[in-house]
User: What shape does this take?
Amino acid sequence: MKRILLALCIVFAVHIAAAQVSAGVVSYSFRDAFAKDVPGTLDAVKAMGITDIEFSSLFGKSAAELRRLLDERGMTCSSYGVAYGDLVEKTDEVGQTAKTLGASYVRVAWIPHDSTGFTETVALKAAGDFNTAGRLLKEKYGMLFCYHNHGYEFTAYGKGTYFDLLAAKTDPKYVGFEMDILWVYFPGKDPVELLKKYPKRFYLMHMKDLKPGIARSPVGGTSGDNNVPLGQGQLDMPAILKTAQQVGVKKYYIEDESDRSFQQVPQSLAFIRAQQ
Assistant: This one.
């Protein structure tokens, strides 16, 4: 009986842990503040109740300097974002920088393509580059590479989309994905359906919401000023969070590209915590 009760307690504890979403933030949300004062901005972010940051810039610091500032505050950098060119041409340098920061993930958020649009040739080259860099990062530095979508990947291709092509041509052992939920929704797709379609490929997630009344479009983009606090926009945040937890998304980062991020990020954090 004691063993049964112990087993039930363990199952219950695991269930509770799995139900919790610990949200971090993308450094881009506070890019102007970080550019002026890294220590002060870290203090402000921690005061919001956030201790994990996905950095896509070192803001003039060395990786060691930034790591020291984080350590002094009990904060972490779990993911490090780099440009496509750096991933491909400076993979070792990227891996070492990410390791110094303490990151478990490296991500790229844009695949270069010209005015002719995102094509099969571009997608296949990117998939090959991601496999090569991802393997080195995993085998040498113990971290996973993730690609962050930006909308153009959902253009129709064959019986699916270019995202489907990227997913099919990348090795799951070395390449995962970071879902930017707004950039799934804006071009006309459903984040919940995509999570269910690829339940083992999404490790990271950018959380942001779209202002009511803004039209979606399969082409073009939308201003960062159209970001609103989570739960106040068009996306079905409760359903997205529930599904993300079910499929095992590991890290959630609030991203607010508006000039109101210092006001809106705490509201978004409160919304996420209210869903627990």
